Each structure stands twice: as structure tokens, then as C-alpha cells.
């Protein structure tokens, strides 16, 4: 069961909320954003404001003529998969997996087909568009994820338990937004396994030799 949403300390950035509202994020990032919003009243309210502003801009925009083949071109673009799916940030009570995630995950934590990635950590890669990737991570209580940096952006949303790193403590509902400037070693707190939803738009940069070798096979 998720923690009380009033305890959420770490929220989405304005660019992420604006990108979600505009539909410009990769599907993997959309999923993390929608899942966090389903857990966070503050970010849900902020999203509503961005969507309202976007609606006003559309209303104030003067109509323009379009090419005769505009419809066919738009349908072809949709078929190409370049438009990212945008999960709705609906709430779901009494479940580790909030509403948006339930369109991607079938079953509970223990019934999923986890794949070991080393050090006791397991992952389940979710199927999304190829411009970014997203996975569930299961980090046993007290276990550290290998020290790593980032070649792009990584969004990590805690669904159960908590982890700490060089930045802060992240509990259920918190999201950490990491970029090329952050090197960290997340450690799951004692008490229960830490379940996270993590999306990346570029491979991580592991600092140890063994994780770098394993990275070729686990695709993270």
C-alpha cells in the first residue's frame, strides 16, 4: 500500500509537467509522470494549471489553412509510432501499482517475471516506444544499486519502501530527476524491498568494472 500522499517531498519539475501536458515526452517518461501525478495532489493541481493555459492558447490562436494531404500525413505519423502514448494519471487505492501502471503490469509484485541484474537487484522492462526505456526495479532492503552516473535523464519514482543517496531520502511517491551532473549510489532502506519505476533516455554510466560488463546484457 502506498504511503500517505502528504508525505511526498520530491516532485516533478516544471519542464516535465509542461512536456506531459503538451504531449511531447517519450512514452516511458509519460508513464513515470502519470504514475507520480496519480499519487501526488500537488503535481495533479499543477498539471491542471498547465493544461488550462494550453487550452487558452489554443483558443486564442487564429485558424490557418492546411494542406490537402494534412490528414493523410497525420495518420501516417501516428502509424509510425512517433507520437508517444500518454497514460492518464488516474488514482488506484490499496495497490503498489497505481492506475497508469496497471495498463503495463499484470499481477502483483511477487507474480511478476523479475530478471536478476546483479547484487540482488531485479528488474522488469516494460514495453514502450523506443525513444526511452522504463522498468520496474526491485531492490532488496539494505541493498545498494551500483554507483553510477547518467548520460541523459533518469526519472526514478518510488512505489514502495524508500532509498537514500547522496542527494536525499526518497520515499513512496517521491521522484528523483537525475541528469549528467549526478553520480550516486542509491541504497534501499531496511524494513522492506524498495520498488521503483525508472525511465531513462540514455544508458547509465556505471563506475565499476563488473556493472559495466553486466550492462551489456541487462540493457540499462
Automatic annotation (TrEMBL):
<dbReference type="InterPro" id="IPR014710">
    <property type="entry name" value="RmlC-like_jellyroll"/>
</dbReference>
<dbReference type="Pfam" id="PF12973">
    <property type="entry name" value="Cupin_7"/>
</dbReference>
<protein>
    <submittedName>
        <fullName>Anti-ECFsigma factor, ChrR</fullName>
    </submittedName>
</protein>
<feature type="domain" description="ChrR-like cupin">
    <location>
        <begin position="106"/>
        <end position="199"/>
    </location>
</feature>
<dbReference type="InterPro" id="IPR025979">
    <property type="entry name" value="ChrR-like_cupin_dom"/>
</dbReference>
<dbReference type="InterPro" id="IPR041916">
    <property type="entry name" value="Anti_sigma_zinc_sf"/>
</dbReference>
<dbReference type="InterPro" id="IPR012807">
    <property type="entry name" value="Anti-sigma_ChrR"/>
</dbReference>
<dbReference type="InterPro" id="IPR011051">
    <property type="entry name" value="RmlC_Cupin_sf"/>
</dbReference>
